[in-house]
Amino acid sequence: MADVLSVGVNLEAFSQAISAIQALRSSVSRVFDCLKDGMRNKETLEGREKAFVAHFQDNLNSVNRDLNELERLSNLVGKPSENHPLHNSGLLSLDPVQDKTPLYSQLLQAYKWSNKLQYHAGLASGLLNQQSLKRSANQMGVSAKRRPKAQPTTLVLPPQYVDDVISRIDRMFPEMSIHLSRPNGTSAMLLVTLGKVLKVIVVMRSLFIDRTIVKGYNENVYTEDGKLDIWSKSNYQVFQKVTDHATTALLHYQLPQMPDVVVRSFMTWLRSYIKLFQAPCQRCGKFLQDGLPPTWRDFRTLEAFHDTCRQ
Amino acid sequence: MGVTCVSQMPVAEGKNVQQTVELLTRKLEMLGAEKQGTFCVDCETYHTAASTLGSQGQAGKLMYVMHNSEYPLSCFALFENGPCLIADTNFDVLMVKLKGFFQSAKASKIETRGTRYQYCDFLVKVGTVTMGPSARGISVEVEYGPCVVANDCWNLLLEFLQSFLGSHIPGAPAVFGNRHDAVYSPADTMVQYMELFNKIRKQQQVPVSGIR
Ligand SMILES: [Zn+2]
Questions:
Q1: Ligand 1 centre and the CA of A14: distance in Å?
Q2: Is A200 helix (H, G, I), strand (E, B) or coil?
Q3: Mean pLDDT of B124-140
Q4: Which residues contact A149 (CB under 8 A, 6 or more apart)?
Q5: Over the range B125-145, which residues count as b (16 or more CB within 10 Å of their CB) and which as e?
Q6: Do B146 and A291 lie within an 8 Å CB cutoff?
Q7: pLDDT per residue over A146-177, tens digit each?
Q8: Over the stretch A113-127, which tens digit does the pLDDT of each residue have?
Q9: CA distances from A202 to A100, A181, A189, A205, A230 (A)
Protein backbone atom coordinates (compact mmCIF):
# COMPACT_ATOMS: atom_id res chain seq x y z
CA MET A 1 0.00 0.00 0.00
CA ALA A 2 3.05 2.29 0.06
CA ASP A 3 2.56 3.46 -3.50
CA VAL A 4 -0.84 4.73 -2.53
CA LEU A 5 0.94 7.82 -1.28
CA SER A 6 1.84 8.72 -4.82
CA VAL A 7 -1.83 9.37 -5.50
CA GLY A 8 -1.39 12.49 -3.45
CA VAL A 9 -2.97 11.72 -0.11
CA ASN A 10 -1.35 13.08 3.03
CA LEU A 11 -1.64 9.97 5.18
CA GLU A 12 -0.47 11.69 8.33
CA ALA A 13 -3.17 14.32 8.03
CA PHE A 14 -5.63 11.62 7.16
CA SER A 15 -5.22 9.70 10.43
CA GLN A 16 -5.24 12.93 12.40
CA ALA A 17 -8.49 13.89 10.69
CA ILE A 18 -10.03 10.58 11.66
CA SER A 19 -9.20 11.16 15.32
CA ALA A 20 -10.54 14.71 14.98
CA ILE A 21 -13.83 13.28 13.74
CA GLN A 22 -13.93 10.95 16.72
CA ALA A 23 -13.28 13.87 19.09
CA LEU A 24 -16.01 15.90 17.42
CA ARG A 25 -18.49 13.09 17.73
CA SER A 26 -17.85 12.57 21.42
CA SER A 27 -18.06 16.28 22.21
CA VAL A 28 -21.34 16.49 20.30
CA SER A 29 -22.74 13.55 22.24
CA ARG A 30 -21.61 15.26 25.47
CA VAL A 31 -23.75 18.26 24.53
CA PHE A 32 -26.79 16.04 24.15
CA ASP A 33 -25.99 14.14 27.36
CA CYS A 34 -25.89 17.45 29.19
CA LEU A 35 -29.24 18.47 27.74
CA LYS A 36 -30.74 15.11 28.55
CA ASP A 37 -29.64 15.18 32.20
CA GLY A 38 -31.03 18.65 32.72
CA MET A 39 -30.51 20.61 35.94
CA ARG A 40 -28.95 18.64 38.80
CA ASN A 41 -30.08 19.01 42.39
CA LYS A 42 -28.50 22.03 44.07
CA GLU A 43 -29.58 23.97 47.16
CA THR A 44 -31.01 26.97 45.37
CA LEU A 45 -32.85 27.26 42.07
CA GLU A 46 -30.41 29.95 41.00
CA GLY A 47 -27.46 27.63 41.69
CA ARG A 48 -28.99 24.89 39.60
CA GLU A 49 -29.49 27.17 36.60
CA LYS A 50 -25.99 28.65 36.81
CA ALA A 51 -24.30 25.26 36.97
CA PHE A 52 -26.34 23.97 33.99
CA VAL A 53 -25.64 26.98 31.77
CA ALA A 54 -21.91 26.86 32.54
CA HIS A 55 -21.76 23.14 31.79
CA PHE A 56 -23.66 23.56 28.53
CA GLN A 57 -21.40 26.44 27.47
CA ASP A 58 -18.30 24.34 28.11
CA ASN A 59 -19.62 21.53 26.00
CA LEU A 60 -20.52 23.84 23.08
CA ASN A 61 -17.08 25.38 23.21
CA SER A 62 -15.42 22.00 22.91
CA VAL A 63 -17.64 21.14 19.91
CA ASN A 64 -16.55 24.39 18.28
CA ARG A 65 -12.90 23.65 18.99
CA ASP A 66 -13.08 20.11 17.59
CA LEU A 67 -14.88 21.33 14.48
CA ASN A 68 -12.22 23.95 13.77
CA GLU A 69 -9.54 21.34 14.18
CA LEU A 70 -11.30 19.01 11.71
CA GLU A 71 -11.65 21.76 9.15
CA ARG A 72 -7.95 22.61 9.42
CA LEU A 73 -7.00 18.97 8.93
CA SER A 74 -9.35 18.40 6.01
CA ASN A 75 -7.51 21.10 4.05
CA LEU A 76 -4.29 19.18 4.58
CA VAL A 77 -5.75 15.88 3.38
CA GLY A 78 -6.28 17.19 -0.16
CA LYS A 79 -8.55 15.84 -2.87
CA PRO A 80 -7.18 12.59 -4.23
CA SER A 81 -9.72 12.04 -7.00
CA GLU A 82 -9.00 15.30 -8.79
CA ASN A 83 -5.42 14.31 -9.39
CA HIS A 84 -6.34 11.17 -11.25
CA PRO A 85 -7.08 11.44 -15.00
CA LEU A 86 -10.00 9.02 -14.74
CA HIS A 87 -11.44 10.70 -11.64
CA ASN A 88 -13.08 8.35 -9.20
CA SER A 89 -12.93 5.39 -11.53
CA GLY A 90 -9.12 5.65 -11.21
CA LEU A 91 -9.53 4.43 -7.65
CA LEU A 92 -10.40 1.04 -9.13
CA SER A 93 -6.68 0.67 -9.84
CA LEU A 94 -6.13 0.58 -6.09
CA ASP A 95 -7.82 -2.78 -5.90
CA PRO A 96 -5.11 -5.17 -4.68
CA VAL A 97 -6.65 -8.32 -6.18
CA GLN A 98 -6.15 -7.58 -9.87
CA ASP A 99 -6.40 -11.21 -10.91
CA LYS A 100 -9.87 -11.75 -9.57
CA THR A 101 -11.43 -8.43 -10.54
CA PRO A 102 -9.62 -6.95 -13.52
CA LEU A 103 -12.17 -4.13 -13.69
CA TYR A 104 -9.65 -1.36 -14.14
CA SER A 105 -7.86 -2.80 -17.16
CA GLN A 106 -11.19 -3.70 -18.75
CA LEU A 107 -12.42 -0.19 -18.18
CA LEU A 108 -9.36 1.29 -19.85
CA GLN A 109 -9.76 -1.00 -22.83
CA ALA A 110 -13.44 -0.17 -23.23
CA TYR A 111 -12.64 3.53 -23.00
CA LYS A 112 -9.97 3.32 -25.69
CA TRP A 113 -12.24 1.22 -27.88
CA SER A 114 -15.17 3.61 -27.67
CA ASN A 115 -12.89 6.57 -28.34
CA LYS A 116 -11.59 4.87 -31.47
CA LEU A 117 -15.11 3.92 -32.56
CA GLN A 118 -16.29 7.47 -32.27
CA TYR A 119 -13.30 8.72 -34.24
CA HIS A 120 -13.82 6.19 -37.06
CA ALA A 121 -17.55 6.80 -37.12
CA GLY A 122 -16.89 10.51 -37.51
CA LEU A 123 -14.53 9.90 -40.44
CA ALA A 124 -16.97 7.49 -42.09
CA SER A 125 -19.86 9.90 -41.72
CA GLY A 126 -17.81 12.70 -43.30
CA LEU A 127 -16.89 10.52 -46.27
CA LEU A 128 -20.41 9.21 -46.74
CA ASN A 129 -21.86 12.69 -46.69
CA GLN A 130 -19.63 13.68 -49.61
CA GLN A 131 -20.81 10.67 -51.63
CA SER A 132 -24.46 11.01 -50.71
CA LEU A 133 -27.10 11.05 -53.43
CA LYS A 134 -29.93 11.95 -51.13
CA ARG A 135 -31.93 15.10 -51.50
CA SER A 136 -30.59 16.30 -48.22
CA ALA A 137 -27.00 15.97 -49.45
CA ASN A 138 -26.60 19.60 -50.55
CA GLN A 139 -27.82 21.00 -47.30
CA MET A 140 -25.45 18.64 -45.55
CA GLY A 141 -22.38 19.89 -47.44
CA VAL A 142 -22.93 23.42 -46.21
CA SER A 143 -23.54 22.59 -42.62
CA ALA A 144 -20.79 19.99 -42.42
CA LYS A 145 -18.15 22.72 -42.31
CA ARG A 146 -19.53 24.60 -39.41
CA ARG A 147 -20.59 21.51 -37.57
CA PRO A 148 -18.50 21.15 -34.42
CA LYS A 149 -17.34 17.80 -33.16
CA ALA A 150 -19.68 14.88 -33.43
CA GLN A 151 -22.30 14.88 -30.74
CA PRO A 152 -23.63 11.47 -29.79
CA THR A 153 -26.23 13.04 -27.54
CA THR A 154 -29.08 13.45 -30.04
CA LEU A 155 -31.07 10.91 -28.07
CA VAL A 156 -31.54 13.30 -25.22
CA LEU A 157 -32.90 16.37 -27.00
CA PRO A 158 -35.24 18.47 -24.87
CA PRO A 159 -38.95 17.89 -25.69
CA GLN A 160 -39.34 21.59 -26.44
CA TYR A 161 -36.84 21.27 -29.30
CA VAL A 162 -38.70 18.28 -30.73
CA ASP A 163 -41.97 20.24 -30.50
CA ASP A 164 -40.40 23.13 -32.41
CA VAL A 165 -39.05 20.94 -35.21
CA ILE A 166 -42.42 19.20 -35.62
CA SER A 167 -44.47 22.38 -35.59
CA ARG A 168 -42.15 23.92 -38.19
CA ILE A 169 -42.72 20.90 -40.46
CA ASP A 170 -46.46 21.14 -39.77
CA ARG A 171 -46.45 24.72 -41.02
CA MET A 172 -44.37 23.78 -44.09
CA PHE A 173 -47.06 21.56 -45.62
CA PRO A 174 -50.60 22.99 -45.63
CA GLU A 175 -52.26 19.75 -46.80
CA MET A 176 -50.62 17.84 -43.98
CA SER A 177 -51.67 18.19 -40.37
CA ILE A 178 -49.49 16.85 -37.58
CA HIS A 179 -50.80 16.25 -34.10
CA LEU A 180 -48.14 15.61 -31.45
CA SER A 181 -48.83 13.85 -28.16
CA ARG A 182 -46.78 12.23 -25.43
CA PRO A 183 -48.87 9.46 -23.93
CA ASN A 184 -45.87 7.50 -22.65
CA GLY A 185 -43.54 10.02 -21.05
CA THR A 186 -41.01 11.97 -23.11
CA SER A 187 -41.26 10.05 -26.38
CA ALA A 188 -43.50 11.84 -28.85
CA MET A 189 -46.14 10.23 -31.04
CA LEU A 190 -47.39 11.94 -34.16
CA LEU A 191 -50.70 11.52 -35.92
CA VAL A 192 -50.18 12.81 -39.44
CA THR A 193 -53.28 13.35 -41.57
CA LEU A 194 -52.55 13.80 -45.26
CA GLY A 195 -55.44 15.49 -47.04
CA LYS A 196 -58.35 13.07 -47.24
CA VAL A 197 -56.06 10.27 -48.33
CA LEU A 198 -54.38 8.65 -45.37
CA LYS A 199 -53.35 8.87 -41.73
CA VAL A 200 -49.94 7.95 -40.39
CA ILE A 201 -49.00 7.11 -36.83
CA VAL A 202 -45.35 7.96 -36.18
CA VAL A 203 -43.65 6.75 -33.01
CA MET A 204 -40.60 8.84 -32.14
CA ARG A 205 -37.69 8.43 -29.81
CA SER A 206 -36.35 11.94 -29.33
CA LEU A 207 -36.11 13.07 -32.98
CA PHE A 208 -35.60 9.59 -34.37
CA ILE A 209 -38.56 7.84 -35.96
CA ASP A 210 -38.92 4.39 -34.50
CA ARG A 211 -42.03 3.10 -36.24
CA THR A 212 -44.74 4.21 -38.61
CA ILE A 213 -48.12 2.75 -39.49
CA VAL A 214 -50.14 4.03 -42.44
CA LYS A 215 -53.92 3.73 -42.40
CA GLY A 216 -56.83 4.92 -44.48
CA TYR A 217 -58.47 8.28 -43.93
CA ASN A 218 -61.68 6.52 -42.85
CA GLU A 219 -59.97 3.97 -40.61
CA ASN A 220 -59.89 4.13 -36.85
CA VAL A 221 -56.46 4.98 -35.41
CA TYR A 222 -57.39 4.79 -31.73
CA THR A 223 -57.75 1.86 -29.36
CA GLU A 224 -60.87 1.37 -27.28
CA ASP A 225 -59.44 3.40 -24.41
CA GLY A 226 -58.77 6.36 -26.67
CA LYS A 227 -55.02 5.96 -27.13
CA LEU A 228 -53.23 5.92 -30.47
CA ASP A 229 -53.22 2.34 -31.72
CA ILE A 230 -49.59 1.77 -32.69
CA TRP A 231 -49.84 -1.98 -33.24
CA SER A 232 -52.73 -2.96 -35.53
CA LYS A 233 -52.27 -2.64 -39.26
CA SER A 234 -54.60 -1.23 -41.87
CA ASN A 235 -57.47 -3.34 -43.21
CA TYR A 236 -56.58 -2.30 -46.76
CA GLN A 237 -53.79 -3.92 -48.74
CA VAL A 238 -52.80 -0.62 -50.30
CA PHE A 239 -52.01 0.95 -46.92
CA GLN A 240 -50.23 -2.16 -45.69
CA LYS A 241 -47.99 -1.79 -48.73
CA VAL A 242 -47.45 1.92 -48.08
CA THR A 243 -46.60 1.05 -44.45
CA ASP A 244 -43.88 -1.30 -45.72
CA HIS A 245 -42.50 1.40 -48.00
CA ALA A 246 -42.58 3.99 -45.21
CA THR A 247 -40.54 1.64 -43.04
CA THR A 248 -38.04 1.30 -45.88
CA ALA A 249 -37.93 5.08 -46.11
CA LEU A 250 -37.04 5.31 -42.42
CA LEU A 251 -34.01 3.15 -43.08
CA HIS A 252 -33.11 5.22 -46.14
CA TYR A 253 -33.28 8.68 -44.62
CA GLN A 254 -30.49 8.40 -42.05
CA LEU A 255 -28.29 11.26 -40.86
CA PRO A 256 -27.48 10.51 -37.25
CA GLN A 257 -26.04 13.94 -36.69
CA MET A 258 -28.98 15.88 -38.12
CA PRO A 259 -32.15 14.13 -37.01
CA ASP A 260 -34.35 17.13 -37.82
CA VAL A 261 -33.32 16.94 -41.49
CA VAL A 262 -34.25 13.26 -41.47
CA VAL A 263 -37.74 13.97 -40.11
CA ARG A 264 -38.24 16.74 -42.66
CA SER A 265 -37.08 14.54 -45.56
CA PHE A 266 -39.33 11.73 -44.42
CA MET A 267 -42.35 14.03 -44.20
CA THR A 268 -41.59 15.50 -47.65
CA TRP A 269 -41.49 11.99 -49.05
CA LEU A 270 -44.69 11.06 -47.22
CA ARG A 271 -46.46 14.11 -48.61
CA SER A 272 -46.12 12.75 -52.15
CA TYR A 273 -48.82 10.21 -51.25
CA ILE A 274 -51.41 12.97 -51.50
CA LYS A 275 -51.90 11.69 -55.09
CA LEU A 276 -51.90 8.02 -54.05
CA PHE A 277 -55.09 7.28 -56.01
CA GLN A 278 -54.60 9.89 -58.74
CA ALA A 279 -51.08 9.30 -60.03
CA PRO A 280 -50.50 6.59 -62.65
CA CYS A 281 -47.30 4.57 -62.59
CA GLN A 282 -44.37 6.41 -64.18
CA ARG A 283 -43.15 3.20 -65.79
CA CYS A 284 -46.17 1.27 -67.09
CA GLY A 285 -48.55 4.23 -67.20
CA LYS A 286 -51.36 2.28 -65.54
CA PHE A 287 -53.22 2.90 -62.31
CA LEU A 288 -53.60 -0.68 -61.16
CA GLN A 289 -51.33 -3.66 -60.97
CA ASP A 290 -52.64 -6.72 -59.13
CA GLY A 291 -55.39 -4.52 -57.77
CA LEU A 292 -53.02 -2.00 -56.21
CA PRO A 293 -52.27 1.59 -57.28
CA PRO A 294 -48.63 2.75 -57.53
CA THR A 295 -47.65 2.52 -53.85
CA TRP A 296 -43.95 3.25 -54.22
CA ARG A 297 -42.55 6.77 -54.24
CA ASP A 298 -38.98 7.29 -55.42
CA PHE A 299 -36.81 8.65 -52.61
CA ARG A 300 -35.26 11.33 -54.80
CA THR A 301 -37.77 12.26 -57.48
CA LEU A 302 -40.93 11.33 -55.49
CA GLU A 303 -42.36 9.80 -58.67
CA ALA A 304 -45.04 7.13 -58.36
CA PHE A 305 -44.29 3.53 -59.28
CA HIS A 306 -45.87 0.17 -58.72
CA ASP A 307 -43.92 -1.95 -56.30
CA THR A 308 -42.84 -4.23 -59.15
CA CYS A 309 -42.22 -1.40 -61.62
CA ARG A 310 -39.43 0.33 -59.68
CA GLN A 311 -35.90 -0.53 -60.66
CA MET B 1 -66.82 2.80 -46.60
CA GLY B 2 -65.00 3.80 -49.72
CA VAL B 3 -66.05 5.22 -53.07
CA THR B 4 -68.67 3.26 -54.99
CA CYS B 5 -69.68 3.27 -58.63
CA VAL B 6 -72.98 1.67 -59.67
CA SER B 7 -73.61 1.05 -63.34
CA GLN B 8 -75.81 -0.96 -65.64
CA MET B 9 -74.31 -3.69 -67.74
CA PRO B 10 -76.15 -4.31 -71.04
CA VAL B 11 -77.11 -7.88 -71.81
CA ALA B 12 -74.53 -9.48 -74.05
CA GLU B 13 -75.35 -10.13 -77.69
CA GLY B 14 -77.25 -13.40 -78.08
CA LYS B 15 -77.38 -14.05 -74.34
CA ASN B 16 -80.03 -13.63 -71.65
CA VAL B 17 -79.62 -11.85 -68.32
CA GLN B 18 -78.56 -14.94 -66.43
CA GLN B 19 -75.97 -15.96 -69.01
CA THR B 20 -74.48 -12.47 -69.05
CA VAL B 21 -74.21 -12.47 -65.24
CA GLU B 22 -72.45 -15.83 -65.39
CA LEU B 23 -70.07 -14.47 -68.02
CA LEU B 24 -69.22 -11.52 -65.78
CA THR B 25 -68.69 -13.53 -62.61
CA ARG B 26 -66.50 -16.01 -64.47
CA LYS B 27 -64.32 -13.10 -65.65
CA LEU B 28 -64.08 -11.84 -62.07
CA GLU B 29 -63.06 -15.24 -60.79
CA MET B 30 -60.40 -15.52 -63.47
CA LEU B 31 -59.07 -12.15 -62.36
CA GLY B 32 -58.58 -13.63 -58.89
CA ALA B 33 -61.64 -12.22 -57.11
CA GLU B 34 -63.00 -14.25 -54.21
CA LYS B 35 -66.66 -14.94 -53.51
CA GLN B 36 -67.86 -13.39 -50.27
CA GLY B 37 -71.52 -14.13 -49.75
CA THR B 38 -74.47 -12.41 -51.41
CA PHE B 39 -76.03 -8.97 -51.44
CA CYS B 40 -79.40 -7.36 -52.01
CA VAL B 41 -80.59 -3.81 -52.65
CA ASP B 42 -84.33 -3.13 -52.87
CA CYS B 43 -86.44 -0.09 -53.56
CA GLU B 44 -90.11 0.72 -53.14
CA THR B 45 -91.79 3.80 -54.58
CA TYR B 46 -94.25 5.97 -52.62
CA HIS B 47 -96.25 8.92 -53.84
CA THR B 48 -97.91 11.56 -51.78
CA ALA B 49 -101.55 10.66 -51.11
CA ALA B 50 -104.17 12.58 -53.10
CA SER B 51 -105.76 13.94 -49.92
CA THR B 52 -102.62 15.91 -48.98
CA LEU B 53 -102.05 17.49 -52.38
CA GLY B 54 -104.44 20.30 -51.64
CA SER B 55 -106.37 22.43 -54.09
CA GLN B 56 -103.36 23.72 -56.04
CA GLY B 57 -103.32 20.49 -58.01
CA GLN B 58 -99.53 20.19 -57.77
CA ALA B 59 -98.00 16.90 -58.80
CA GLY B 60 -97.10 14.57 -55.96
CA LYS B 61 -93.41 14.04 -55.29
CA LEU B 62 -92.11 10.52 -55.50
CA MET B 63 -90.31 9.09 -52.51
CA TYR B 64 -88.15 5.97 -52.64
CA VAL B 65 -87.67 3.76 -49.60
CA MET B 66 -84.62 1.54 -50.00
CA HIS B 67 -82.61 -1.12 -48.16
CA ASN B 68 -79.06 -2.29 -48.70
CA SER B 69 -77.75 -5.57 -47.24
CA GLU B 70 -74.39 -3.82 -46.73
CA TYR B 71 -76.17 -1.68 -44.07
CA PRO B 72 -78.61 -4.19 -42.57
CA LEU B 73 -79.71 -1.90 -39.71
CA SER B 74 -80.52 1.10 -41.89
CA CYS B 75 -83.31 2.20 -44.14
CA PHE B 76 -82.89 4.92 -46.75
CA ALA B 77 -85.61 7.33 -47.83
CA LEU B 78 -84.85 9.43 -50.89
CA PHE B 79 -86.54 12.03 -53.06
CA GLU B 80 -85.45 12.46 -56.63
CA ASN B 81 -82.90 15.30 -56.62
CA GLY B 82 -83.83 15.75 -53.01
CA PRO B 83 -82.49 14.92 -49.62
CA CYS B 84 -81.62 11.41 -48.53
CA LEU B 85 -82.71 10.31 -45.09
CA ILE B 86 -80.84 7.50 -43.37
CA ALA B 87 -83.00 5.93 -40.66
CA ASP B 88 -83.24 2.75 -38.61
CA THR B 89 -85.08 -0.18 -40.17
CA ASN B 90 -88.06 0.76 -37.96
CA PHE B 91 -88.73 3.38 -40.60
CA ASP B 92 -90.67 0.76 -42.57
CA VAL B 93 -93.22 0.53 -39.75
CA LEU B 94 -93.48 4.29 -39.71
CA MET B 95 -94.29 4.29 -43.42
CA VAL B 96 -97.29 2.04 -42.72
CA LYS B 97 -98.55 4.60 -40.17
CA LEU B 98 -98.05 7.40 -42.67
CA LYS B 99 -100.44 5.74 -45.14
CA GLY B 100 -102.54 8.90 -45.16
CA PHE B 101 -99.64 10.90 -46.59
CA PHE B 102 -97.54 8.44 -48.56
CA GLN B 103 -99.00 5.59 -50.53
CA SER B 104 -97.04 2.73 -51.92
CA ALA B 105 -97.21 2.58 -55.70
CA LYS B 106 -98.63 -0.73 -56.86
CA ALA B 107 -96.11 -3.36 -57.99
CA SER B 108 -93.33 -0.79 -57.73
CA LYS B 109 -90.90 -2.98 -55.83
CA ILE B 110 -87.64 -3.40 -57.70
CA GLU B 111 -84.54 -5.10 -56.40
CA THR B 112 -81.16 -6.45 -57.36
CA ARG B 113 -79.61 -9.60 -55.92
CA GLY B 114 -76.36 -11.34 -56.58
CA THR B 115 -72.92 -12.35 -55.40
CA ARG B 116 -70.37 -10.23 -53.58
CA TYR B 117 -66.76 -10.51 -54.71
CA GLN B 118 -63.59 -9.27 -53.05
CA TYR B 119 -60.54 -8.45 -55.13
CA CYS B 120 -57.67 -6.77 -53.28
CA ASP B 121 -59.27 -3.61 -51.86
CA PHE B 122 -62.17 -3.73 -54.32
CA LEU B 123 -65.64 -5.00 -53.51
CA VAL B 124 -67.62 -6.04 -56.59
CA LYS B 125 -71.33 -6.86 -56.61
CA VAL B 126 -72.90 -8.21 -59.76
CA GLY B 127 -76.67 -8.40 -59.41
CA THR B 128 -79.73 -9.34 -61.40
CA VAL B 129 -82.34 -6.56 -61.31
CA THR B 130 -85.84 -7.94 -60.97
CA MET B 131 -89.30 -6.39 -60.91
CA GLY B 132 -91.88 -8.87 -59.78
CA PRO B 133 -91.08 -12.25 -61.32
CA SER B 134 -88.99 -11.15 -64.31
CA ALA B 135 -85.35 -10.19 -64.68
CA ARG B 136 -84.95 -6.70 -66.11
CA GLY B 137 -81.24 -6.06 -66.24
CA ILE B 138 -77.81 -6.32 -64.65
CA SER B 139 -76.30 -4.05 -62.03
CA VAL B 140 -72.56 -3.81 -61.42
CA GLU B 141 -71.36 -2.12 -58.25
CA VAL B 142 -67.68 -1.56 -57.57
CA GLU B 143 -66.51 -0.15 -54.25
CA TYR B 144 -62.93 0.93 -53.65
CA GLY B 145 -62.52 0.86 -49.87
CA PRO B 146 -59.30 2.81 -49.20
CA CYS B 147 -60.40 6.05 -50.89
CA VAL B 148 -63.04 8.46 -49.58
CA VAL B 149 -63.09 11.19 -52.26
CA ALA B 150 -64.90 10.13 -55.42
CA ASN B 151 -62.98 12.32 -57.87
CA ASP B 152 -59.62 11.14 -56.48
CA CYS B 153 -60.10 7.57 -57.60
CA TRP B 154 -62.44 7.76 -60.58
CA ASN B 155 -59.69 7.00 -63.11
CA LEU B 156 -58.51 4.11 -61.02
CA LEU B 157 -62.06 2.75 -60.73
CA LEU B 158 -62.52 3.13 -64.47
CA GLU B 159 -59.39 1.12 -65.19
CA PHE B 160 -60.63 -1.61 -62.88
CA LEU B 161 -64.12 -1.63 -64.49
CA GLN B 162 -62.53 -1.96 -67.92
CA SER B 163 -60.58 -4.99 -66.76
CA PHE B 164 -63.74 -7.10 -66.52
CA LEU B 165 -66.53 -5.17 -68.27
CA GLY B 166 -64.60 -5.21 -71.53
CA SER B 167 -65.83 -2.82 -74.19
CA HIS B 168 -68.71 -1.48 -72.13
CA ILE B 169 -67.39 1.51 -70.20
CA PRO B 170 -69.75 3.42 -67.90
CA GLY B 171 -69.53 7.18 -67.47
CA ALA B 172 -68.78 8.80 -64.13
CA PRO B 173 -71.86 8.65 -61.86
CA ALA B 174 -73.67 11.97 -61.50
CA VAL B 175 -73.12 12.03 -57.72
CA PHE B 176 -69.34 12.15 -58.30
CA GLY B 177 -69.59 15.58 -59.84
CA ASN B 178 -71.77 17.09 -57.14
CA ARG B 179 -69.26 18.02 -54.51
CA HIS B 180 -65.65 18.56 -55.41
CA ASP B 181 -63.73 16.90 -52.60
CA ALA B 182 -66.44 15.85 -50.17
CA VAL B 183 -66.21 12.53 -48.35
CA TYR B 184 -68.25 9.89 -50.12
CA SER B 185 -71.20 8.56 -48.10
CA PRO B 186 -73.48 5.48 -48.25
CA ALA B 187 -76.33 7.79 -49.31
CA ASP B 188 -74.42 8.51 -52.54
CA THR B 189 -74.52 4.79 -53.34
CA MET B 190 -78.27 4.64 -52.73
CA VAL B 191 -78.83 7.63 -55.04
CA GLN B 192 -76.94 5.73 -57.75
CA TYR B 193 -79.11 2.64 -57.26
CA MET B 194 -82.25 4.78 -57.32
CA GLU B 195 -81.17 6.30 -60.64
CA LEU B 196 -80.29 2.87 -62.03
CA PHE B 197 -83.67 1.44 -61.01
CA ASN B 198 -85.52 4.40 -62.53
CA LYS B 199 -83.62 3.94 -65.77
CA ILE B 200 -84.47 0.24 -65.87
CA ARG B 201 -88.15 0.97 -65.07
CA LYS B 202 -88.35 3.33 -68.05
CA GLN B 203 -86.69 0.77 -70.31
CA GLN B 204 -89.40 -1.65 -69.28
CA GLN B 205 -92.13 0.61 -70.62
CA VAL B 206 -90.72 0.21 -74.09
CA PRO B 207 -91.72 -3.24 -75.30
CA VAL B 208 -88.48 -3.82 -77.21
CA SER B 209 -86.20 -3.50 -74.21
CA GLY B 210 -82.93 -5.38 -73.89
CA ILE B 211 -84.48 -8.49 -72.40
CA ARG B 212 -84.13 -11.57 -74.48
ZN1 LIG C 1 -46.34 0.21 -63.06
A1: 82
A2: strand
A3: 93
A4: A122
A5: bbbbbbbeeebbbbbbbbbbb
A6: no
A7: 444 444 455 668 889 999 999 999 999 999 99
A8: 988 998 898 888 888
A9: 49, 11, 6, 10, 8
Is the CB of residue A229 less than 8 Å from the CB of residue A181? no
Q: Is the pTM of this model over 0.95?
A: no
Chain A contact set for B145 (CB, 8 A): 216, 235-236
Query: SS3 for A308?
Result: coil
Q: Give the tens place of pLDDT for each residue, A15-53.
A: 888 999 999 999 999 999 888 887 777 677 788 888 888
Give the start-end residues of each E strand in chain A. 176-184, 187-194, 198-205, 208-216, 296-297, 304-305
B97 C-alpha to ligand 1 centroid (Å): 57
Note whether A287 contacts B122, CB cutoff 8 Å.
no
Q: Degrees (nearest 5) of the Cα angle B4, B116, B156?
A: 35
Residue A175's Cβ-count burial label (10 Å; 0-12, 13-18, 19+) is: exposed
Q: Residue range A65-75: average pLDDT?
A: 89
Query: Which of B145, B163, B183 is closest, CB to CB, to A196?
Result: B183
Instruction: Give the distance from residue A215's alpha carbon to the nearest chain B alpha carbon, in angstroms.
Output: 9
Question: Which run of H or E residues covers position B161?
Answer: helix B150-165
| Chains A, B: CB pairs < 8 Å | 56
